[in-house]
Write a structure and sequence with these properties.
Layout: E1 6-14, H1 19-30, E2 35-42, H2 52-57, E3 63-64, H3 74-91, E4 95-99, H4 101-113, E5 118-123, H5 134-150, E6 153-156, H6 159-168, E7 177-179, H7 187-190, H8 193-203, E8 210-216, H9 225-236, E9 242-248, H10 254-266, E10 271-275, H11 280-285, E11 289-292, H12 301-308, E12 313-316, H13 321-324, E13 331-334, H14 339-350, H15 353-370, H16 373-390
Parallel strand pairs: 1-2, 1-4, 2-3, 4-5, 5-6, 6-7, 8-9, 8-11, 9-10, 11-12, 12-13
Helix pairs in contact: 1-16, 3-4, 4-5, 9-10, 9-14, 12-15
Length: 391
């Protein structure tokens, strides 16, 4: 291979808070000097927090594509496809790497039409269950199979996800799917924990005798906040400990969740909705337990960040959860849609400070290297070169 830099065009659905934004940012900023990367993506939807501050923090300047909308739309999709082709014609990438479903569909079609040598797609999650009805789900599976056949490589972010893509949903052949877990800048979550804890607890007026429990994520059906709220309701009468609950995030179910929160507040539960919080590494330090109640996940970022902050986790057993935490070691993994078991596991942690501390320490030890961005960029660089040599 010559000394000329390998040009990568990276395409992301939209710049909203979540794993794909971090993944795209670190891969754009920290790939080795053998590569040059241009990042493009859509804007957040209403109710989502934009994540452009993350790109600014790491000195990444993306091209924004307002035409790329989350929901399928013939007119906006056609405009986005045309715009991506224009960028490919001008930038002349050696590799087009798409992240998540909408970017994957439009970006890969554009790259294939423009004869880009290597076309790669990362599945950050998938929409093959719990999102849509049967007909729409089958249509998405059909489209993804066709795109996978024409892609040079497919990246799964966990072993479980690879198994689902290859065996459960038969999207791609095993030989085409490579597992590269996400990577994050985790040290900042583990720095100055006691100072950050004091700042957060002062800000939210949380006494040290109170146990603070949070759930962080979009207020959307897939995140199943109703399970969290049902568990909170069950816990209310089960412990003498003083509890305070936080719902961090925003989204389409805000009003529905706010109504349930109001009903719990009338029962004497201290539960607060904060909308999005940008300095989540600071916020985490003030928490004692962090929860996830989703019906489906790819790699849940909030769980990795919680463990990096030395906070134990209670999570439903969905998607890549088993790949990012250790059951009974860094927290508890419970069946989805079972508020009784979820509340029981929360109660174990509420009543046992020593266990919370022990699980917190184990969490940091588990995630600190496994999910660091340096591992991510090294593995991705090797994979890109491998795919290029096959061309």
């Amino acid at each position: 291979m010559s000394n000329k830099k390998i040009k990568v065009l990276r395409i992301i659905n939209r710049f909203n808070i979540g794993g794909p934004t971090y993944n795209a940012t670190f891969l754009t900023r920290f790939l080795s000097d053998d590569f040059e990367t241009l990042l493009i993506g859509g804007l957040p939807e209403k109710g989502e927090s934009d994540s452009l501050h993350i790109l600014e923090e790491y000195g990444v300047e993306p091209i924004l594509l307002p035409e790329m909308k989350r929901k399928p739309n013939f007119f906006s999709d056609r405009k986005a496809l045309r715009r991506i082709k224009e960028i490919i014609a001008e930038y002349k990438p050696d590799i087009v790497h798409t992240h998540a479903s909408k970017a994957g569909a439009l970006g890969r079609k554009a790259a294939l039409d423009m004869k880009v040598p290597v076309v790669v797609h990362t599945f950050h999650g998938h929409v093959f269950h719990s999102y849509f009805g049967k007909v729409k789900t089958e249509l998405y599976k059909f489209i993804e199979r066709k795109l996978a056949q024409k892609s040079t490589g497919i990246i799964a972010i966990s072993d479980l996800q690879k198994k689902e893509l290859v065996n459960t949903y038969q999207i791609a052949h095993e030989s085409k799917v490579n597992v590269i877990p996400l990577g994050f800048d985790l040290e900042k979550f583990n720095r100055n924990l006691s100072e950050k804890r004091k700042i957060v607890r002062d800000k939210f007026q949380i006494n040290e005798c109170q146990i603070a429990i949070a759930i962080i994520g979009r207020l959307a059906p897939i995140k199943n906040h109703s399970l969290f709220l049902e568990s909170v309701d069950l816990l209310h009468s089960q412990t003498e400990k003083k509890l305070v609950f936080f719902i961090v995030g925003d989204g389409e179910l805000r009003d529905v969740i706010a109504q349930k929160v109001s009903e719990l507040t009338k029962k004497g539960v201290d539960i607060r909705m904060t909308s999005w919080i940008k300095d989540i590494n600071e916020f985490n330090a003030g928490m004692d337990i962090i929860c996830l109640t989703s019906n489906n996940e790819g790699t849940p970022v909030s769980i990795i960040e919680a463990q990096a902050s030395q906070v134990p986790v209670v999570s439903t057993n969905v998607g890549g959860v088993q790949n990012v935490m250790i059951d009974n070691e860094t927290g508890f993994i419970v069946p989805k849609n079972n508020a009784r078991i979820f509340a029981d596991k929360l109660l174990v942690l509420i009543e046992n400070e020593a266990l919370r501390n022990e699980m917190g320490h184990k969490g940091w030890a588990f995630v600190k290297e496994r999910f660091h961005f340096e591992r991510l960029v090294k593995e991705m660089g090797h994979y890109y070169k491998e795919l290029l040599t096959k061309e």
